[in-house]
Design goal:
The protein has helices spanning 3-23, 30-45, 60-90, 92-99, 104-131, 140-168, 174-186, 199-207, 211-221, 228-255. It is mostly helical. The protein has one domain (7-255). The protein is elongated.
Length: 270
């Protein structure tokens, strides 16, 4: 199968998914509503944290905003994976596989949709934050860096969820997609800077691959870039790892749900 044919299949699947969203646009709201609700709750109830001695960031609303942007982008990936589970549970995924010998083109179609929805979610969150008066110190290159990291995390979440959805081919797998992503986000420096954390939470944040993108994003917003190379390496590494995870999930999907691994026949003793 040529690259042009693979791209055609990916675009066709992306177009079909987009049509379903246009028929039911309310499905696009949950990945944006929950982050916005958390944004309002955190910046309102915890705004006093920004006035405490030792808090070195220029604005607490902006500090929380980076977390919310990443959450919105990753939740779009999670909900796109939910759609994959629905399609395979309904049998639509099997029809996709009949028409595409290169299975990754199918995953590519969902990834295109996730990135497009991710851009929309990021734009909505930005609009709400600016409307509430959030100050932004970073320039255009800094904003581009922040958005780039958010889209990489969007892709990573989509590929992670795709691997789960393709293995189970059931909407019952939704919990296995959502909860790990949700927990990984909250095991970063969410409410305060990493130096202010203590105990196991500081240890968890130190090994969490989402911590570097979080700190780099806040640096971009403050026009004081930090850990940029590490952040993009971490986010890109997640995309690569979960791409392999999605590939193995597609191989599992080819065998059908619940397929047992093939065993080698035992030799009879003479």
């Amino acid at each position: 199968m040529t690259a042009a044919r693979s791209l055609s299949i990916s675009l066709g699947i992306a177009l079909q998914c987009t049509r379903k969203l246009l028929k039911n646009p309310l499905k696009a709201l949950p990945p944006m509503l929950l982050p916005l609700f958390i944004f309002v709750a955190f910046t309102g109830a915890l705004s006093a944290v920004g006035d405490t001695p030792g808090f070195g960031y220029y604005d607490y609303t902006a500090f929380q905003f980076v977390f919310i942007v990443y959450m919105a982008a990753m939740f779009v990936g999670v909900f796109t994976a939910f759609d994959i589970a629905i399609d395979w549970e309904s049998g639509l995924g099997a029809r996709f596989m009949l028409n595409a010998s290169r299975r990754l083109a199918i995953v590519g179609g969902y990834l295109i949709v996730a990135l497009g929805r991710g851009l929309l979610a990021i734009a909505v969150v930005w609009a709400v934050a600016l409307a509430t008066g959030m100050p932004v110190r970073g320039g255009a290159p800094d904003i581009a860096g922040l958005v780039g990291l958010a889209l990489l995390l969007n892709a990573a979440a989509t590929l992670y969820g795709a691997g789960i959805a393709l293995r189970f081919q059931s909407t019952a797998s939704s919990v296995l997609i959502l909860i790990p992503v949700f927990m990984a986000q909250f095991l970063t420096p969410v409410f305060s800077q990493r130096d202010d954390l203590s105990g196991w939470l500081k240890t968890a944040a130190g090994v969490n691959p989402l911590t570097a993108p979080m700190e780099a994003g806040r640096g971009f917003l403050a026009n004081d870039p930090v850990s940029v190379g590490l952040a993009f390496a971490a986010a890109g590494g997640l995309v690569i790892v979960f791409s392999l995870w999605a590939v193995r999930g597609m191989r599992k999907a080819e065998k059908g749900p619940g397929a047992a691994p093939r065993r080698r026949p035992r030799r009879r003793r003479a």
